Amino acid sequence: MRAAQITALDGPDAVRVAEVEEPTGDDDAVVIDVHAAGVAFPDALLTRGLYQYKPDLPFTPGAEIAGVVRSAPAGAQVSAGDRVLGLTMLSGGMAEVVALPAERVFALPDSVSFEAGAGILFNDLTVQFALRTRGRLAKGETVLVHGAAGGIGTSALRLAPALGAERTIAVVSTEEKAEIARAAGASDVVLADGFRDAVKELTGGRGVDVVLDPVGGDRFTDSLRSLAVGGRLLVVGFTGGEIPTVKVNRLLLNNVDVIGAGWGAWTFSHPGYLQEQWAELQPLLASGAVPAPQPEVYPLEQAAQAIASLENRSAKGKVVLKLR
Ligand SMILES: NC(=O)c1ccc[n+]([C@@H]2O[C@H](COP(=O)([O-])OP(=O)(O)OC[C@H]3O[C@@H](n4cnc5c(N)ncnc54)[C@H](OP(=O)(O)O)[C@@H]3O)[C@@H](O)[C@H]2O)c1
Known about the structure:
Blueprint: E1 2-6, E2 15-19, E3 29-39, H1 41-46, E4 64-71, E5 83-87, E6 97-101, E7 105-107, H2 114-117, H3 121-134, E8 142-145, H4 151-159, E9 167-172, H5 175-183, E10 188-191, H6 195-202, E11 208-213, H7 220-225, E12 227-235, H8 249-254, E13 257-260, H9 263-269, H10 273-287, E14 296-299, H11 303-311, E15 319-322
Bound molecules: NADP nicotinamide-adenine-dinucleotide phosphate.
C-alpha cells in the first residue's frame, strides 16, 4: 500500500510517499480501506521530533481516518462495507489501509463525506472534552476561541453553539483567516493583535466566560484579563511556541480558573469515554446541528505540503489528505 512516511526529523520536507506493507492488526482489529486522513498540528511536531511521542524512523504520521471497513471481528459495532471514521490516535493514519481496535472505530453519518469525516474525531472530541468535561460550558455563555481558523479552532466554532454557547468570538491573525472563522460559524471575529481591547468592547467590558486556547505564547495574560468573573481558560495547546506561565494572584483576584485539557491522556485513563463522547456527537453531526468540517483537501502525494501548511501557519481550517 502507499503511505506517507517521516523519514528524517528534518521537518515536513522529509515526508515521502512510499510503498509499505499493509498492517494486519490483531485478530480483534478492524481493517479499513482509508479514503481520507486528517492532518493535525502534532503531525508537524512529529516531523521534527518535537512531540512527546517519538517512534522509530521511518514511520507514518496521522491520527485519524475515514474509510470503508474491509473486515471486522465478530461482535464489533461495524462490519465489512460500512462507512466509518476512526482514530489511530498518534500515528499510522496517512496510509491506504489501517487496522484499529474496534473501540476506536465509529459509523460515519451518511450525510458526511469521507474528506469531512477524516476531520472530525481528533479535533471535535478534544473540543467537546475541553468545553464540556473540563470547561463546564453552560447554556448562554460566551466562548473566545484562539487559533480560530485552525483545526481545533474551527472545530470549537462549529461545536460550541450546539453545546450551549450563545456567542463565539474568534481570534485570528489575518483578514483571510477571519473569513474561515466566519464560515465555521463565529459570531464575531477579532484580530490577534489587540484582541483584548476588541473583546472588552464586544462584551461591554464584562469579558467572556470561556477561553479555548490552542495557541498559548505571549497572548496568555491578555486571555486571562479577557475572562469574566468565574471564567475559565482552557489550555489546549501551544502552537505559538512558548509555554506561558501564570501568576496565580490573577486567579484569586478575579475568581477565574486556568484548566488543562489533555484529551488523549483522559481517554486512556477513562475507558468508555470515547464511546460516551461519540454518543453525544454522532446525532449532532447526523442532524446538522453541528455542521461537518469544510476541510482543505490535499492528495496523498502532497502530504509534505499539507503538513507544512500547519507549521508555516498557512492552513485554512482543517487539513485532510485524500487517499482514494
Ligand atoms: N489538548 C489536547 O488534547 C489536544 C488535542 C489535539 C490538538 N491539540 C493541540 O492543539 C493545537 C492546535 O492544533 P491544530 O491541529 O488545530 O493546529 P492548526 O490547525 O495549525 O491551528 C493552529 C492555529 O494556531 C495559530 N498560531 C499562532 N501562532 C502560530 C505559530 N507560530 N505557528 C503555527 N500556528 C500558530 C494559527 O492561527 P493564527 O495564524 O490565526 O494565529 C493556527 O490557525 C496544537 O498545539 C495541538 O498539539 C491538543
